[in-house]
Amino acid sequence: MYVQHFGFSRPLFSDGMAHDDAVFRTSAIDQLVQDLDTALTRRDSVAILSGVSGTGKTTIASDALKNISTRLAFSCISHPPLTAHELLEQLLTDFGFEPYQKSRVERLQLWRQFLSEMAATDTRVCLLVENAEDLSPEVVQCLHSLTAADAALSPGANVLMTTTVAPERLLTTEDMLAFNQRVRLRARIGALTEDETRDYLSFKCRCAGADSDVVFGSDMAPLLFEFSGGIVRVIDNLLESALISAAAANEEKITAERMIQTAEQQFGISRLQPEEVDNLLDAAPVLDEALAISEESAAIIDEIPTLTDFVSVPADSGAVEILAETNSDSFTNFATQRLTQN
């Protein structure tokens, strides 16, 4: 509805996850992608990306994986398996096998054979594991054993974990020491700054064939930043809802009033003006005890989003994209499926 009204060549936001040229990158994200490529050069290395919900961890991770320098077969585990048995079954299913009538030993042998076949064709295997903080110790240990290089000449597989907790808080128990030692990158993805929010708005409009200043006006980026806190998912929801409402009202552009109405009345998000923040700080008692926040408490506070988290439709845990081919008769039936975002 709003596409024709505002003269876009396509919707500002596509369903699911952004891909390829539609992925917005800051200079920090560009550096992260380079670091990730370096970290995953070893076939069984591990990387951890952290950040609050809605900052685009899965989008950035999958985009980075698609741009690494070697052929890639990867699986996205969106919903944490409940048991080690379920994890192995899910991996084999994702990569095109039918493991349901096989014994555990046969499944393990099938998985190791798959890793060896991929290595023989110079294809990297990578598992993208979302919400890694929700994995049970049993599943984490199984994930390590299935992806580590071993004496049976299995080269292992890369693991890229995304999490909302600080990366140093994962894999911290003594029985996870070996898994922890495989980690070659721990990085945090933050919210957009106000300048980056402006760049993001311009980028999305360019992708849709429009000028952001014509559709939104120059005052929209600061307003978006105040309401969203720079959380990409919140920005997307606010923009799309405002566009739909404005088109229905036959408005020529998105005004500040329209955005405020959308945020406050539809989404229930309020903002604090700078003078209100100053008043709160002036009224707060300055106590030494209030400043004595423990390191653990500070880490927890840092992870708590300040805004409502607008959750989109979860991705299928079985989604997998395979960018490799092999001459082995055992591995010619790999299905190419699309990778979606939660």
Structure description:
This protein is an alpha/beta fold. The protein has two domains: 128 residues, no CATH class; 183 residues, 3-Layer(aba) Sandwich (Rossmann fold). The chain is 44% helix and 10% strand. The protein is built from 15 helices and six strands. Strands 5-1-4-3-2-6 form a six-stranded mixed β-sheet, with helices on both faces. Strand 3, helix 6 and strand 4 form a beta-alpha-beta unit. The longest helix has 17 residues. The protein is elongated, with a radius of gyration of 23 Å. The C terminus is likely disordered.
Task: Present the secondary structure layout.
Layout: H1 2-6, H2 27-39, E1 46-50, H3 57-66, E2 71-77, H4 84-94, H5 104-120, E3 123-129, H6 137-147, E4 158-163, H7 177-181, E5 183-188, H8 194-207, H9 212-215, H10 220-228, H11 232-248, H12 256-266, H13 274-283, H14 288-291, H15 295-303, E6 320-322
Parallel strand pairs: 1-4, 1-5, 2-3, 3-4
Antiparallel strand pairs: 2-6
Helix pairs in contact: 2-3, 4-5, 8-10, 10-11, 10-12, 11-12
Number of helices: 15
Strand order of the largest sheet: 5-1-4-3-2-6
The class by helix and strand makeup works out as alpha/beta
CATH architectural name of the largest domain: 3-Layer(aba) Sandwich
Q: What is the count of β-strands?
A: 6
* Count of the domains: 2
Which residues sit in consecutive blocks of at least 5 with pLDDT less than 50? 280-342
> Can you tell me the overall shape?
elongated
Order of helices and strands: HHEHEHHEHEHEHHHHHHHHE
CATH domain class name of the largest domain: Alpha Beta
Q: Kindly report the average pLDDT value.
A: 78
Q: What value does the Rg take, in angstroms?
A: 23 Å
What is the helix content? 40-55%
Beta strand %: 5-15%
Biggest sheet layout: 6 strands, mixed
